[in-house]
Design goal:
The complex is a heterodimer of chains A (278) and B (1152). Chain A is mainly β and 278 residues long. Chain A has helices at residues 3-12, 17-30, 71-75; strands at residues 43-48, 62-64, 78-80, 87-90, 93-103, 106-110, 112-114, 120-121, 124-131, 138-146, 159-165, 172-178, 188-193, 204-211, 214-219, 222-227, 242-250, 266-277. Chain A is built from 3 helices and 18 strands. The longest helix of chain A has 14 residues, at 17-30. With 1152 residues, chain B is mainly beta. In chain B, strands 20, 21, 22, 24, 27 and 29 form a 6-stranded antiparallel sheet that branches. In chain B, strand 6 (84-93) and strand 7 form a beta hairpin. The longest helix of chain B has 26 residues, at 2-27. The two termini of chain B are 41 Å apart. At the A-B interface, helix 1, helix 2, strand 5, strand 13 and strand 16 of A face helix 1, strand 1, strand 65, strand 66 and strand 68 of B.
Amino acid sequence: MNKKYKDIKTIRSSFPSILVLLLVYCFSGCTTDDTQTVARFTNLVMEDNFETEGAPNPQIWGYDIGTGVNGWGNQELQYYTSRPENVKVDNGFLLITARQESFENSQYTSARLLTKDLFEQQYGRFEARIRLPYGQGIWPAFWMLGADIDDNPWPAAGEIDIMEYRGQNPTVLIGSVHGPGYSAGEAISKEYILENDRFDTGFHVFGIEWGPEYINFYVDDVLYNQITPEDVTGTWVFNKPFYILMNLAVGGTFVGSPNAETVFPQTMLVDYVRVYEE
Amino acid sequence: MKLLLNRAKIVCLMILAMSYLGCEEDDEGGSLPEVLAGFTQLTTEGTGTVSFINTSENADKYEWDFGDGTTSTEIDPIKTYVTGTYTVSLTASNAAGGSDTFEDELVIVVPEAVALPITFDGANVDYDASTFNGAAFEVVDNPAPGGSNDTASKVGAITNSGAAFEGFFFDLGTPIDLSTDKTIQMNFWADAAIDVLLKLEEGTGAATEITASHGGSGWEMLSFDFTSGDSFSRFTMFVDGPGTTAGTFYIDDITQVETMTGGGGTAPTTSAPVPPARDAADVISIYGGTYTNIDGINYNPDWGQSGLAFVNTEYDPGDGNFALAYPTFNYQGTDFSGNPQDASGMEFLHIDIWVPTGTDRQVKVSPINGGTGTGVAEFLVEVPLTPGAWNSVDLPIGDFTGMTWDEVVQLKFDGQFNGDGSANTDPHDIYLDNIYFYKEASGGGNAPTTSAPVPPARDAADVISIFGETYTNVTGIDYDPNWGQSGFGLVNPAFDPGDGNLALAYPTFNYQGTDFSGNAQDASTMEFLHVDIWVPSGTDRQVKISPINGGAGTGVAEFLVEVPLTPGSWNSVDLPIGDFTGMTWDDVVQMKFDGQFNGDGSANTDPYDIYLDNIYFYKEPSSGGNAPTTSAPVPPARDAADVISIYGGTYTNVTGIDYDPNWGQSGFGLVNTAFDPGDGNLALAYPTFNYQGTDFSGNAQDASAMEFLHIDIWVPSGTDRQVKVSPINSGTGAGEVLVEVPLTPGAWNSVDLPIGDFTGMTWDSVIQMKFDGQFNGDGSANTDPHDIYLDNIYFYKAPSGGGTAPTTSAPVPPARDAADVISIYGGTYTNISGIDYDPNWGQSGFGLVNPSFDPGDGNLTLAYPTFNYQGTDFSGNAQDASAMEFIHVDIWVPSGTDRQVKISPINSGTGAGEVLVVVPVTPGSWNSVDLPIGDFTGMTWDSVIQMKFDGQFNGDGSANTDPHDIYLDNIYFYRTSGGGGGGGCPAPPTGELLSNGGFEANSGDGACWQLNDGGGAVTIIDTDANTGTYSVRLTSGPAQVPNIKQERFATSIAGSQGVQVEFRYKINTSFVDGAILQVLAFSEFTTNPAVAHDLGNAADVTTTGVWQTYTGTFTTDASIEEGISLLIQATCGGAGTCAGEVIIDDVVVTEI
């Protein structure tokens, strides 16, 4: 898992170090908008800025409804709906809201949106600007699944977690890939920690730039990881179309259950989702 | 791979170039982050509650306008609306002055609870019924309009399953009150005869039920006549209650009506009210027994109306007073075209009208004019009516817009409307009586029969009353002096309109006045002259009024102003004093009334009658007056030993105070210890106060050493009362001595009562503070309660003599490299040469400076007594301080000093040469201050030649040139370290990886820690350490991330090495609403990004006041290159109430 640093170091060390320092300085001192400096793909092929109020654009977004099998495989506690109480577009944002309420034998409701059969793509830069919710047991995610999942079940289909996070650790972001031989607890992951800030107090851009043989993970203007076939302990399955998912789970094995201090409702605010090609 | 690399490099270089440009703009201060206002919201369906989510950026202050007149400054407010459309705006701003506003429209629909009348047509009414025993209920379209319900609208459908006692109920939003109207009526549809049971439950009395029988003919009206007089909030219906009839029934139009007697409400059983007597000239009567009807009227001309055959002009309701019955009425009329009437002089059309109970119809009326006037001949006006009762209606002629009235030939009634105004040509029945035009009596209404409105209560000081019973009139008034006026001798100052509230009658009035020249009044401060005036109906005259001033002012003595009036009713008039142009007001001696004008202002000396009441001058109450809207002055800083504080926010109040012990006082239980005058500085409110006190007998205070009792007190404007205060001592000697508190109403009074005023008191064991307000302003007894507000109740003494000069020396600064310091004064570093500590700039303390003041321990300080401003001059040895990061100064001012001291270096080069910055100071102790160079905005630093100190400010920043004393030490510039990367941090203790884990070194290189306030506060403190003297305190609030960090230590640590982080922490304030204490570590690399390790949050962050141990571990990254970094942060989310404070000490990092 740590082998990748050796490769990257070779790349980076070819830069004069003074330039790298200046680059870092400029990034931190001047970059306040969403102009991306750690990604190279700029040919925009899909974007949703959530400008039309009401339900999300049905040409792009579908829903998973209900509780799946065994809480979507993770003993998650929420019932996913497409009701406006759980998902709506308002004032330029997509709001995915987890509520504590009795609904169809679940104690929580929320929503999970996906572009399956609507937008699927192989390679590209996938990013979203999101303000995350917080609190024990809150588990938002912006992620992707292999589009052939119906014929090629998980984990063989592959999964790219661009962003997932535990509400109780609101400065820690996790980016991962799952595939055959490296799924669930064995996924290839890296955490990114936000200093002097939290993910639930402002918007941040979460993205990957994915090409043949590599996936670069970035947050805002910080490239914090690259995963290549050499890093995974199984077959590299990231060479086919994937679709996008966004959801806000409550509870489950990854995050633990909410407790008395968890405040509801919790809302994941999405400013935009954009996909670029090289 | 190679190609790709090259391309990436080019991209990075281009970005670099662009970024430089951006940075330069930043450096010039020209592009502060732009404030972006925004919000979205969550609504809870059907409740009206909206949780706003603030999405503004770069802002720290928020002003919400919810669009319904309410506002908020919260970050994410929650607001409950009623149904409506609201424009919500959010203005976000920041300290730098930027602001932005975002608006959004919210449509709120809150379903109304069902309540009578129930029509099932309300778009926003929750008609969900609760069903039981098998019945079902839904709202549907009327399946069979006809019968008693021929309207195609929504109705309720009840479907019985066939079980006994099945039915439904509504929980009503408004209870049914049977105290007067005891009948519930409804349209009910059934196609076979059936009994319907209506039960009213959840009442103020026993549940009650009535059964009505339906004939099975479709829509029929059912009436349920109850006898209960209670109110009920549950409406329950059983169709065929005990039976088992299955099928669907419909209900509609459920209303509550007056209970009918006898034959029920299809025709009147009483006659219409008898109209008043009127002059024949004032009436044109069409139908009725009171006036003479005009000749030649046909009450039933054939215009094709539906009721042609049924009109009865002599319908007898039972008492012989006939009415005009129009059964089966769609429209109808009366024709008198053979005798056209000129109704131009009339003012009203009167009609008495009756329609059967349950009728939901409108009736409109119009006269029809046959003349050749320019206006319209017909204009229908709705006749307001309540079914089942006579309605006496007076329609003003003016309501018939555009009508001409010279030749009225018919009266038309049109009933082809539903109650909501929609068309409905079905016939119904109406009964009419007393149809006539009239005008108010010409000569009638000769005197008022009601009294003038009673004026509002006012402070005596705000009123000069001439006539009336509300205020005290000035003495010595003659209401009928003989000036030759026509009504002399007829004046009645005690005219009773019938209710005992007397008026001043001036019959046969041409002009008149009142004279009080023996008691001239100064009305200079008054704002209005009030008068109530009444003149008989039909009077077309003007009345003017003027006070008459007898003084020697420069203005006019008399200026007549018209009193606007409507005849036949009381006119309450407030004439602004300014309307009496040019008047002087110092010596008002008479009030003159002049009525010698026609309504158009032309002269007319004929006498007539006027009635007056409530003649007085007044002004609005000073300062709004009932409660303070500003807070009391903030007391000066004092040493804790110099104060015993009972109430107030400045000092620490003694514990164990009961501000409202029950001594039987009038205001017991009403005390508000947190009255907010509006600025958050709370006061102690004693409303309905006769006497009151505070009790701290559980914590008796020895006030023997105190010199003054201070109180801030506020009483409402106009209060004429004394308030006395006494402490109560439980020891021997006099225990209580009341002393008057001098006060001015309507303003805060800051009072310092010398202890000596409490003659004979002992002070060794003060246990209560007593306030007694049972006095008038003149000291006489008055036990009526009034309101007082108190603040800052404390004993104090002047700062102890020891507090005028320091008796200890300033802390010794840490060792530093000579290159890191430019020292101006002090014994630790080498001071630069060529310094003059007392150059003569004309300052007040020139010649008194002592650069060798010894506080007693030989560590000398620089004394500036009698200081207004002062400085040191080293222009012969100018210093380049560009590389420095801080200016350090230790400063001491005497206890009780409430002054600001500012400091600026002075630079002789180009650019700003002097920027004064406030040095934060606590009197009576040494203050070690490190001012970042950046605080001196705009300064240049290449050639610093002087240090200027300026003390010509009060504590609040306002100017004050009075001299005071200051003591300084350790004045120097410094920088923390020459190089980067932790080079300056000393070696850690043996066996440990981290230096200064106990925070004992807290400046210079040895400090090692970065203290990042992250919007909150991070402070090294010496008041609560786990071990040693120092610890660090992190204070977090909404969206704040205060943290401490050490970077790149243990630089030679191996990869994959286990590391343990342990520290002690003590929670000062519980971490709530999202606050967490996080511990994070990083494996550092030369160029690659660090690898983060989350050690987990501190588990218990809610138990306060206890030192606890945090232990966390991680394994370094296998490829680690440049050691580890440790970050401990108290982070808060966006919740507006998120907070927490923790003290951390003794951080130990070890390999495991």
